[in-house]
Amino acid sequence: MRTGTRVGGEVVRAVNGLTARWAATTTGGTALSAAGVWPLLAFLADGAAGPARAELAGALGVPADRAAAAARELLAGLGSVAGLDAALGLWTHQELALRAQWRAGLPAGTHGVFGDDLVTAQERLDAWAAERTGGLIERMPMTLTREARMVLAAALALRTTWRQPFEELPHRPAAGPWQGRTVRGLHRRSVRPDRVGVAGTPDGFVTALTVPGDNGVDVHLVLGEERMTPGQVLARGVEVVQRALAVTPGGALPHGHVGPGLHVEQQPVTAPEPRALAVRTVGFEVRADHDLTALAGLFGLTTALDRSHGHFPGVAGVPLAVGEARQSALAQFGATGFRAAAVTAVASVYGGGFQPRYETTVVQVDFDRPFGFLAVDRDSRLVLVAGWVTDPAPYPATG
Q1: What are 139-143's contacts with CB under 8 Å, separation 24+?
Q2: Distance CA 15, CA 125 (A)
Q3: CA–CA separation, 294 vs 150, rounded Å?
Q4: In sequence order, which ranges of the chain are alpha helices (DSSP H)?
Q5: Residue 56, number of CB atoms within 10 A of its CB
Q6: What's the rounded Cα separation, in Å, for the pair 164 and 139?
Q7: What are the backbone angles phi and psi of residue 201, rounded to the nearest 5°?
Q8: What gap in Å lies between CA 1 and CA 81, rounded to an integer?
Q9: Closest CA to 266 of 252, 256, 253, 251
Q10: What is the C-alpha separation between 97 and 250, in angstroms, rounded?
Q11: Cα–Cα distance, 305 to 98 (Å, whole number)
Q12: Neighbours of 7 (CB within 10 A)
């Protein structure tokens, strides 16, 4: 940690528990960050009432009356991890007045306002996502709509460099789904056999490898038996990381096939050396977009998504419901290090068919096809420049 700030064990267990439950639902290639979702759910729980409050607390694993304090503790802890940048953002429509007490519970400097110019507002939100992740995530995972009254978002960006880099070589797997392909193989050899170990789980055996970074961040690679699902392997991997499962370290393993992808054998060497660890893996980049409402029960959002009435009286004096909740995530593993980022956003809308007390007339004009222009001197009304637009400038590339 950068400043010695640490997240309490209760919060760590709660966030890891959500990670394990979410990971258990996966069926293929993905990247996800429960640490990016958890504080958003916690702040929502702080302002929720009724069944929505109970469901959010159940998903969080902490009581709702402690949720905001736990979220602040988590964000402070994330912000003090070397190599990790964490940020929270809140944007409300100009018509929405927040409860002062709820707003005061969020970190300072997080609140912005947007109006009916959704294009400009979306550009601001996208720029926030890109800036907070160093360009790894280029835009907010959702698009603002006319219904949106509030957007609560979290961004995480992680970078670490391996203490011992890998050697990058072409690799052609002899079996399995990658057979016949030439992939980016990563190899290295060390005298730390205990960096790998095997755990027996109710679902099957899991091999776990720790790849240490140079800033206090490690990446754990986990491999299960072929019959295990991705969700099972990931969920058991979380237990290994939490030390909730007994792991037999590589230095204590017998000769032979001792775990998924793991063998202990005698090899000739040119000079005496202790038991070694030889690692061969592959470089990867995984991107994923998640609709959190598709797993509403997992995230405690089932009731909160019901727009027939409001669920967050502690947030604002008007009825609000959750309209959308999404995450974009990226993970890159290479010869020299690891990079990952996630942006999570929850949008709130009016609940119970609520309509603002006042209405106004809006005249909207869209120049969305070829159009002309005239530059005129005001006093003389002299046309200085005239023209016709057929090819508007492209939106500049980011990242």
Answers
A1: 139/328, 140/343, 140/345, 141/289, 141/290, 141/326, 141/327, 141/328, 141/343, 141/344, 141/345, 142/324, 142/326, 142/345, 142/347
A2: 26
A3: 20
A4: 9-23, 34-47, 50-60, 67-79, 100-104, 118-132, 230-241
A5: 28
A6: 33
A7: -125, 165
A8: 4
A9: 256
A10: 58
A11: 20
A12: 20
| Cα separation, 81 vs 86, whole angstroms | 9
pLDDT confidence band for 169 (50 / 70 / 90): confident
Average pLDDT (328-349) is 93
Sequence letter at residue 351: G
Residue given tokens 């902490």 in the structure block: 62
Domains of the chain: 9-160+288-350 (3.30.497.10), 161-282 (2.30.39)
CA angle 211, 214, 79 (to 5 degrees): 105
Neighbours of 80 (CB within 10 A): 16
**Distance in angstroms (rounded) separating the CA atoms of residues 231 and 238:** 11
Chain mean position to CA 353: 32
- Asked if 5 contacts 82 with a C-beta cutoff of 8 angstroms, the reply is no
Residue with more model confidence, 310 or 6: 310
Positive or negative, the CA dihedral 152, 145, 288, 238 is positive
246-285 pLDDT per residue, tens: 999 988 988 898 899 888 888 776 666 677 888 888 898 8
Q: Dihedral, CA atoms, 62, 137, 295, 47, nearest 10 degrees? A: 40
Question: By the 8 A CB rule, do 224 and 208 touch?
Answer: no
How many Å apart are CA 189 and CA 210, to the nearest integer?
13
Q: Which of 33, 29, 28 is nearest to 238 (CA)?
A: 33
Cβ atoms of residues 74 and 338 within 8 Å: no
